[in-house]
Amino acid sequence: MHPSRITAAVAALALSASLATALAGTATAAPKAQPVPPGHGKSLALAAADGAAASGLDELRHGADEDLVRTSVTPWANGLFYTSYERTYRGLPVAGGGDAAVLSDSSGKVRDVTGAAAPTIKLSTTAKVTAAAALATARGQLASVESASTPELTVLLKGGKAVLTWHTLVVGRTAKDAPSSLDTYVDARTGSVARATDKILHADGRGHHNGNVTIDTAASSMTDTSRGGFKCGGQNGSAYTGSSPWGNNGANDLVTACVDIMYAAQRESDMLKQWFGYNGINGQGGMVPARAGLSEVNAYYDGTKTTYGRNQNGTNQLTGIDVVAHEYGHEIFDRTPGSAGSSNENGGMNESTGDIFGALTEHFANNPNDTPDYTVGEKLNFTGNNQPIRNMYNPSLINNNPNCYTQLTSGTEVHAAAGPQNHWFYLLAEGSNPGGGKPNSPICSGGPSSVTGIGIQKAGKVFMGALLMKTSSWNHLAARKATLTSAKNTYGSVECNAVKAAWNAIGVPAQSGETDCGGTTTPDFSLALNPSSGSVQAGASVTSTVNTSTTGGSAQTVQLSASGAPSGVTVSFSPTSVTSGSSSTMTVQVAAGTANGTYPITVTGTGSATHTVTYQLSVGTTTPPTGCDNTENSYQGSLTSGQTGVQPDGSYYYSATSGTHVGCLRGPAGKDFDLYLQKWNGAGWVDVAVGGTATADEDTSYNGTAGYYRYVVHAYSGSGAYTLGLSAP
């Protein structure tokens, strides 16, 4: 039994009714299917997303030793779900590329996929440098260390190559006494630092108090238990204690500074929930803690906390609404898929994200002490000239920052590089000539004559939806595609065309495959394989079902073909073409004498568009074990280490009466597979029986009432084929 891993092993499956693509083989006899359980739309959406990931649909293609592991699911408007995935290699996380996101709907259709490009990974996963030695190297980059995370063995993609590294986050101060939070990868072969990126994002702010406001705290401390234990205190990290009313309205009173911080952060969290349906700053209802009283002209987010100092003249603390919301905007960028990248362009978009959430929070709070606007730090007097430090409607008014995408270079400073996306957001929200006392906004050369805004709330939701499609290679071109997808699926053609016009107005060009904003839906389809991998001996064959679905417009004819099969392997389809929404059986025939090995086979569907998925064929590997002959139904599959699969056939079964459910799992010798029986409780799947010994053979027996049931097989350690037998009342 592995009690520490049971929850983690099944957590990613808790809401999904089907992970059909993790399976190999079909049942000899399937229990009778019944009507879909209530709330099953979410499960259908996740099953479609997981199917796309496992099948390697288009940008989600991955190698035989790689998996896409689901890391988050975010419900959205109109029955949509954003699902993000982290790439793993032989069970190790992959950083620097290969991550992905899928947008799917409650009818089980994939709306869009995006993935960060990644090279083929082939390397040994045995470290020559110890974790302790790597941690010492990472800590040695800073003059003083406040904290350091436990090193995790990670594959880093750097310069088109894969490097085995130890990954750790080191927080402290540099030799120049500047705050630093180094996201560090130490080469596990040589012991040198392979990459270190400072997560400290120095922002700007206003030393402006918000007047007498209402904040959520505990009775005797500045701790907000309703938002994940969010707290505010001094530089020692402890929350300030006392009682309400907190603070004294003093410009440099630090408890008052925490009142301003908590007010702005809580309004930002409320804005995300009420306007966008997003669960708080970190997507899970919480946010990192805050510290006031830094004796520097600075405010920053470092991945573990936000910290706020004073202005240049020392006349107030940097705790205005747009400052605080900017810092927590960095956490939103960091916690959404793809996290924060290392390029200047990505850094500029991260800074712009902070500015955008600052403007959104000001508009949501609508505090008379801080009139909503689209400038940053306008009340801070940061350099003594009483001017803002960034301008969203015309970025060039501050330090001649770039208005247009075409003005960016690889060396543009990150705060200045926020200009183009800030400009885009203002145009989308307010337009180029909004009237009503709002400033006009210029249009870059080659853009439309004018842009009509859609309002800040809609613009914010479009932007938030796009962040949920973000990957580690995020840039302006990817943002254009993602915001068009978000606008069209969340609202419709009018908002989509406004997004397109705003990007055109700052010079970001159209991209291949971007969403068509037309009033009619562009015909399109999606592909998935069930299973997406299979094991076979030379001289035999294996089959998989090619499932298609109509994702746009009317159903269409999809022609199927395969490429990449090795010598001695032939692939056929029956039928060779299908109407989208239908399926075809793919047969992979392996001739006698075919060399053992693992081979990726690309399956292509051609219609109004072309889409691909990948089938991983293993020749001469293990055959499914036997030993479950006394059960009523049997299923076979093949899993790589860390993978999970759902049976029967990626779905569930219905038991109309009470009685005993018997499960029998037989896996590869010397490996460690676990078995979970789950029952639908009306809202999700819950474990009712677990077989979790340190072997690949598990047996479960559960006496239960009538209802929906399924089995989850988890390859905890090791890969290979398995047989599952089950009997139901």
Automatic annotation (TrEMBL):
Q: Which UniProt keywords apply?
A: Hydrolase, Metal-binding, Metalloprotease, Protease, Signal, Zinc
State if Cell membrane is listed as a keyword.
no
Signal peptide positions (record): 1-29
Q: Give the matching InterPro entries.
A: FTP_domain, Peptidase_M4, Peptidase_M4/M1_CTD_sf, Peptidase_M4_C_domain, Peptidase_M4_domain, Zinc_Metalloprotease_M4
CDD domains documented for this protein: M4_TLP
TM stretches of this protein: none
* Domain Peptidase M4 C-terminal, first and last residues per copy: 343-508
Which stretches make up the Peptidase M4 domain?
205-333
Q: Please give the Gene3D superfamilies that the UniProt record associates with this protein.
A: 2.60.120.380, 3.10.170.10, Neutral Protease Domain 2
* Segments forming domain FTP: 67-116
Which Pfam families is this protein grouped with? FTP (PF07504), Peptidase_M4 (PF01447), Peptidase_M4_C (PF02868)
Indicate the family of this protein. Answer: Belongs to the peptidase M4 family.
Q: What is this protein called?
A: M4 family metallopeptidase
Which species expresses this protein natively? Streptomyces zaomyceticus
